[in-house]
């Protein structure tokens, strides 16, 4: 908070459950000064994720558990973590609307939803924000998602705005990841894919040197320049990276900088999916 960060993102599935507890404990003393977002949408077998579940009764039960873990009376922003193909989005939106009426939730959000689902949900209960991946390295939302959000007045919260670290310039085609690192399973982090996309990182580094910023700051500044409704949520486990990321708002990119970044991004061909098949099937588009 000393750096000006007031928006915190968590989810039931992170841990699972333990991250909500951690966020609640850390933010308890400053609760009135922060916005807390969490997510529902998975079922669990003990402490293991066992599939999607957005049935209204499950939503309401798990939100009660989230309130307890977070130590709050109301959740500021409640997302559906992934669209459940077995439950009509109108029922999901209706359940969240009931929670808002009861004072247990303030705002309704979606994550990784497609345009049709966004519109249908919004018709039942106005959607405040959509969370989805968006960065110089993944610009798919620009085709349909972002225009729809702007039309409907819905905020956009991009996760992985630094391409899971790729845009920082600290990852090359020879970088190896720990056995537990999810990037080992992601097609875009194959050695071949990283080699093919290195030209984009090179251009980010050129502009970073010219603007006396870091590559991460340039990548975040580019994202912030796309539309005022965009609020990226870069994740980090290191204090110096947190300080670096929060300073990105001070980086001013010229129109020429933005054009060069757009051109470099447009020249790479992303031939692979973001996720392996078992994860990709949860993306609603």
What is the CATH superfamily of the largest domain? Answer: NADP-dependent oxidoreductase domain
SSE order, as H and E? EHEEEHEHEHEHEHHHHH
Proportion of helical residues = 25-40%
Q: CATH topology of the largest domain, which one?
A: TIM Barrel
The general outline is: globular
CATH class of the largest domain: Alpha Beta
Poorly predicted regions are none
- Biggest sheet strand line-up: 1-2-5-6-7-8
Rounded Rg: 19 Å
Instruction: List the total number of helices.
Output: 10
On the 0 to 100 scale, the average pLDDT is 96
The second-level CATH architecture of the largest domain is Alpha-Beta Barrel
Distance between the termini: 35 Å
Largest sheet: 6 strands, parallel
Number of structural domains: 2
Strand content: 5-15%
InterPro entries: Aldo-Keto_reductase, NAD(P)_OxRdtase_dom_sf, NADP_OxRdtase_dom
GO molecular function, one term: oxidoreductase activity
Domain NADP-dependent oxidoreductase: 2-264
Keywords: Oxidoreductase
């Amino acid at each position: 908070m000393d750096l000006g960060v007031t928006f915190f993102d968590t989810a039931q599935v992170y841990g699972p459950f333990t991250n909500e507890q951690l966020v609640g404990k850390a933010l308890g003393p400053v609760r009135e000064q922060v916005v807390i977002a969490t997510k529902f949408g998975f079922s669990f077998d003990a402490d293991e994720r066992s599939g999607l579940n957005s049935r209204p009764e499950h939503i309401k039960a798990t939100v009660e558990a989230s309130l307890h873990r977070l130590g709050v009376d109301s959740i500021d922003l409640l997302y559906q973590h992934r669209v459940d193909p077995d439950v009509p989005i109108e029922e999901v939106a209706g359940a969240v609307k009931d929670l808002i009426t009861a004072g247990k939730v303030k705002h309704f959000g979606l994550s990784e939803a497609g345009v049709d689902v966004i519109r249908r949900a919004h018709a039942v209960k106005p959607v405040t924000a959509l969370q989805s991946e968006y960065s110089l390295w993944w610009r798919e939302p620009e085709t349909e998602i972002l225009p729809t959000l702007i039309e409907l007045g819905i905020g956009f919260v991009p996760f992985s705005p630094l391409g899971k670290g790729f845009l920082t310039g600290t990852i090359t085609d020879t970088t190896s990841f720990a056995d537990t690192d999810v990037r080992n399973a992601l097609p875009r982090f194959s050695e071949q894919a990283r080699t093919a996309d290195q030209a984009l990182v090179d251009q980010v580094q050129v502009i970073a040197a010219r603007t006396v910023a870091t590559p991460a700051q340039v990548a975040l500044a580019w994202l912030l320049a796309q539309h005022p409704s965009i609020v990226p949520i870069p994740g980090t486990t290191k204090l110096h990276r947190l300080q670096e990321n929060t300073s990105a708002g001070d980086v001013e990119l010229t129109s020429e900088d933005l054009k060069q970044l757009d051109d470099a991004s447009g020249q790479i061909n992303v031939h692979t999916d973001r996720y392996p098949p078992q994860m990709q099937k949860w993306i609603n588009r």
